[in-house]
Amino acid sequence: xxxxxxxxxxxxxxxxxxxxxxxxxxxxxxxxxxxxxxxxxxxxxxxxxxxxxxxxxxxxxxxxxxxxxxxxxxxxxxxxxxxxxxxxxxxxxxxxxxxxxxxxxxxxxxxxxxxxxxxxxxxxxxxxxxxxxxxxxxxxxxxxxxxxxxxxxxxxxxxxxxxxxxxxxxxxxxxxxxxxxxxxxxxxxxxxxxxxxxxxxxxxxxxxxxxxxxxxxxxxxxxxxxxxxxxxxxxxxxxxxxxxxxxxxxxxxxxxxxxxxxxxxxxxxxxxxxxxxxxxxxxxxxxxxxxxxxxxxxxxxxxxxxxxxxxxxxxxxxxxxxxxxxxxxxxxxxxxxxxxxxxxxxxxxxxxxxxxxxxxxxxxxxxxxxxxxxxxxxxxxxxxxxxxxxxxxxxxxxxxxxxxxxxxxxxxxxxxxxxxxxxxxxxxxxxxxxxxxxxxxxxxxxxxxxxxxxxxxxxxxxxxxxxxxxxxxxxxxxxxxxxxxxxxxxxxxxxxxxxxxxxxxxxxxxxxxxxxxxxxxxxxxxxxxxxxxxxxxxxxxxxxxxxxxxxxxxxxxxxxxxxxxxxxxxxxxxxxxxxxxxxxxxxxxxxxxxxxxxxxxxxxxxxxxxxxxxxxxxxxxxxxxxxxxxxxxxxxxxxxxxxxxxxxxxxxxxxxxxxxxxxxxxxxxxxxxxxxxxxxxxxxxxxxxxxxxxxxxxxxxxxxxxxxxxxxxxxxxxxxxxxxxxxxxxxxxxxxxxxxxx
Length: 742
What we know:
Radius of gyration: 34 Å
Mean pLDDT: 88
Largest sheet: 8 strands, mixed
Strand content: 35-45%
C-alpha cells in the first residue's frame, strides 16, 4: 500500500490515482542543478483528515493556515519500503461540481535540498574564528610542518605586489615580511565546514585521504593577511596642516611641529602629536606633502625624519622634497611606501643652509591651495603581529560555488544516505561506479513492449571544453593572449559527427595556480601580479585558486623574527603548485584539465590531469562510435527499485549497462521504464600510455597495448601527453622526451 506523509502527517490517497516517480542520474552529479528526483503531479482528495492538515483550502472566502510558499518534508513509502524522501509542493486546488475538492501535489527528492540548504552565502560568512592566529614567524614556520591548526592552514610565498627580481629578492639585509607570506586553507576541511554549517555530514575516501594536500589560496586583493580589525588601516589616516603662516629657523627644527589636527584638518587614529606621527602597527605607510614656502636666496632641504633621524640618500624612506635657491615655491609630492614598525615616528623635516636665515611656511587652514599640509594617504594591512581573520581572508566566492567548483574539477557525485538525507557520500564518478553491484536484469525485461537502442548522438555536443577561469595574472594572461584560451584547458572535438552541434563548457570558478621563477632566480612562486607598466601591479579582485601543498623545497630565505628586529634564516621555502609533487613526474597528478608546459622545471608532464583521471572514462562512453542508449520496460519489484543505485552495473543478455533514469507508477505493480547507457569498459586513451621516465637520459617510457614497457611510442601518443618526439643518436630511433621549452 502506498503511503504519503507530509511533515509527519499521513495523507489519504486515491486508490487508483497514478503517482509517477522519476529518478535521474544527473541529480547526483550537479549539486546546484535545478533538477532533482521528482514525482509527476498527482491529486489527493480533500477528505476530512486531509483538510485537518491543509485547512479549508476549498473555501473561496477563507484564508487557510497552509502556506503555499513553504516547503514541507515529504516521504513516499510502499509497505514500509521507502520510495522517495524529500519535500512536497502544492501546485493547486481543484473543486468539482462545487462539492468535491482535490489537492494537486508534486514531491521532489532530497538532492534538491542541498543547494538550497547551503544557500547563497559567501565563504567569508563562515564561522572560522577557531582558525584565527597571530601573524608571526613562529606560526608561519609551524604551518610548514603541519602543526598550525593541525595542517588546515599552510603559508606560502605569493608575489602580490613586490614584483620581485634578482636585485630585490629577500636577503639578510632585506628579509621577507610576515605579510609577504600568504595563507592557504585545506579544501577538504573547508568542504566539511560548509556542509556542517548547512546541517550535513559526509563520508569520502577521496577527500579523506587523496586530497589532504589540496589547498585554497586565501586572498581577496590584500597585500598582507587581513587582521580581525579589518578597518584598522582606514582608521589611522590623517591630514594635518598649518592654520596660518609660520616663520622658522634651523633652531626650530628639524621636525616641522607646527601642524594642527583641528577642523578642517583631522587625525582619525589620534597618532599625531605636534606634527609627529607614531605608527600604530608595522606596515607600509604612504605620505603626501603639500608645502608652500619662501626662503629668499638660501638653500632649503626637506625630507622625512624617522625616529628623529633625517633620512639621507640610500636609506629606506629617503624622501627629498626640495633643494631650492630661487626663493619661494610650492611642492606637492607623494612618498614611496615607507616601512614603519609599531612605535616608530615619522615627521617632515627641514634645514636651511644658513642658520640665520628663516623659512616662511604658508598656512591657509585648508588642504593644498597654496597652504602647507601633510597627509597619510594609504596604509597597508599590518605586516606582522595582527590576529589573522581567516574568514575575512577567504576569496570573494559563494560557498555553493566552491563546492560546485570541486565537483567540476574531480567529476564528483553527491549521494544522499537512504536513511538520512543529511548524510552524503561524496566520491569521483569513477570511484562511485566502481562501488556498484552487478545485477542481472535479463529475465526482467518486458519483451512485449518496444525496446529502443539508439546512438548517443542526441547527448553529444560538437565541442566539449573543460577549463578553469582566466586568472588575469602575469602567466595566465600571457597564455590567454597568445593561445586564446585559459591555461590548462582540454578540448574534445567530434568533427565526424554530422549530428552533434554546439559547444558544452565545463568551467570551474577557480583560476589556474601556476608557479614560475622569480626573474633571475631559482625560486618558483605564484606571481599574483597584473601585466601593466604601472607601478601598482596588484590584482584588486583575484579569482580563487586551488593548489597542492608541495612541502618545503631547497632554497635559502630570510624572514623577520617575531620581534621584527632581525632576520631568521631558512634553508628551504614553502611551495604550492598545480602538481601533486614539485618535481612532478609521469605518474603524479596535475590540476590542469589538459597537458600544459610548466613554468618551472619538472621531471615530466604528469599523465593524470583532471580530464584524464576523472572525466575521460565518462566521455569515452558517451562519444565512442560504439556508445548506445537503451530505453526499455522492466518488471522490477519495489524492493528492487528501493535498493538500486546508479552505480550498479546492469547485465542484459551479453552486455553491461548503467542506469540513467527510472520512471514508474508507485501505485501499481506495472512495469518500469528505464533508460540505460552501455558500459564500454576502459577505452585506451592512446595505443601507448606513459608510465615513467628514464632519469639517466630523460626518455619517457610507455605501456603498449599488451602491457609491456617500451620507449618507442607512436609520434601521436608521444605528443598527446605534452612530450616531444625527437631522434636519439645512440639508439638511432625516435624517442619521446619531456618538453622544457616555453
